[in-house]
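COURSE: Structural Biology Practicum
ASSIGNMENT: Worksheet 4, Part C
STUDENT ID: 0417
INSTRUCTIONS: Below are two proteins. For each, the amino acid sequence is given first, followed by its structure token string. Answer the questions at the end about the second protein only.

PROTEIN I
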Amino acid sequence: MKALLIRTGPSFELPELYGLLLLHSSSAIVAVGTILKHYGMDVDYWHIPIKFGIPTTQNEYDERLKKFRKLVKYSDYDFIGFSCISGDEYIHILEFAKICKEEKPDTITVMGGYHATIVSQEIMNDTTYIDIIVRGDFEPICEKFIIAFKNHNLLKDVPNVIFRRNGKIIETQRLLIKYDINSLPKYDFSLIGEYLSSLCSLSIEGSRGCKFKCEYCTESAVRGGHFWSVKKPDRLIDEIKNYSSFIEKHVGYKRFFFVDPLFGIDRKWLNDFCKKLIGSNLDVTWGCETRLDRLSNDEMKLMRNAGCTFIFHGFESGSPKMLKLMGKTNNPEKYLRDAIETVKMAKENDICLFGSYMLGYPGETMDTLQETKNLIEKQIEVGRDYFYPSLLFFIPYPGTHTHLELNEFYKKFGTKVLVDDIWKYSKTCLQNPVIQPSKELDASCLLKFRDELRRWVKNKNYNVKMASSFGAPTNIDYKADLIELGNPCCLPPLNSLKV
């Protein structure tokens, strides 16, 4: 059997350095491709933003779909798989799936990922272009999944799937399968070999799952904070050694990004891993995402000595009130002190820090927004050239506690949903407010605040150091063009592509 795995990316350009995250390999798709190959399937991978470019206009978008259709028409895949998060990709994936079924009606289309897991029944009711949805991690059920198709498609015996049979939608038993990720095969990066020269870094994982339960997070919605598995340091370093040898032959760099929802959650493990990585003399650079309250100065120094050059932190807000509502902390005063100290420590240790802020969470007001701006001002002051704040609007993702409590937020704050299930209708749903946070703050004021704060950040922060820390192009005027990075120079322009 032969499978095609597709990373669609967003429909149009993304603003800010966030768009550059497209230039990291997709850990989820590589993991799925690896386990499929492990069980004997032939697997191909299409990275749509690199293979076809990123459109900036509707005409370019339509042209890209035509080129995709032409390639699919002459393909011979048994399965075509998509991984979906709740955001700009969803409606885009359905358009690609529609083309796949129109050109190859007998090819099975499969969707997985966070969004597909949470609203699987809804997706199957909304579209006929998806044949199967895998709910949760694929590796534990992969062998049964493949055997089912070899034995006349007996998917009813495979847990955690939902599929169509004779016009009916059938759900199998939903199980939270706990497993040791040390038992999984090492990533097969040959899957993405043709795209390596266009990627900033390779995504790998040191752990899977998260022990925290933030109110707004889809990780807790999918796994409920009940699953966490970490690779043994020696196993992980052996992986990095193998990956380094492979990619160095192709592109020369040895740069990785850990996609763990919360890297270094076990501090003893973090210290052991960093010390062993230093001792390995592999000379790699890497980045990760973690919480600001997980790292001391000594730990950050150790991480830098082990090759860490950038860290992602979800600061989310500078308001004590909002931090409590989000479930980020029970001690917001300490949290905010740490938010400034963390940026300062990062700069002192030559580590760049990418901080995200979630504007417009239920209960937000102009006063709480100003508190966030005050925090960002202080962070830029202590971390200039090493700190970049990303300003994103809150979206009530399905399955999260916040999404389930929207009626209560309406009663308490006057929160109103402007567009239900925005990912069904918008190709740029992350770029505009989708709720009115409170009676005191409407969407237009929230949008104006975000835009003004972005302009202020651009004038204050140059971020060439920030961009270069995770392999982004440095031949860009970041002060003038920070928001125009959706199609950076290492991606092919649309008019250069031949199909």
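PROTEIN II
(use this one for the questions)
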Amino acid sequence: MPWWSWRPGSAGGNGSDTDENSSVRSTVRVGVPAQRDPGRVGVPSAEPTKAAELAKSNELAKSTELAGAEGPEQVSEVTLARVGKALDLLDIRYLADGGGSLLAMWERHAVLFTLEGPDDEILVMRARPHATVPPDWADRAYRIVNEWNHTRRFCKAYVGDPTERGQLPIYAEMQVPLASGAHDALVVEMLDCGAAVATSFVDWLHDEGALL
């Protein structure tokens, strides 16, 4: 990945300090400004009008009301029920396998949403394309998967163990530790990101990667 480029003049600039200082001094006004004529400047009233007082009180009441109605969301434990609720909000249809996992199906792939770890504190989103790779394409599969990991930010990809028929499955997954909990908006955002990147990964394997 490319490094950030240096800022112009950040190291060994050609401009001299004398030129910069002279340009600054040329823009500084050193003369004393002319005194204003008191007769031409209107003096504001010291006491606010009743209309201004009423508007200010209404604005304060409204802001207080909004603050109470839009309080901070509560951070709570991430459970499978909350994951399912977030998927419903994203309009992602899924099946529950009864073993603590939710499975969503797309045309080219499936995504497993589950909680793993000693205390079920790790949110896991694991995608697998329906198509598999023949064993004689193993070297190509490793190169393509490594290219994804090298050039993409989200989802680690890897070649799985051979199936019963000797085919190689391809996986991409995201794992996020959430032992401290999370609010609803964050859970929805992470699931949305995982589902979107999984679709992009599978499409990339079929098109640009030319692996499936």
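ANSWER KEY EXCERPT:
Q1: Residues 1-30, 41-46 have pLDDT under 50 and may be disordered.
Q2: The longest strand covers residues 109-116.
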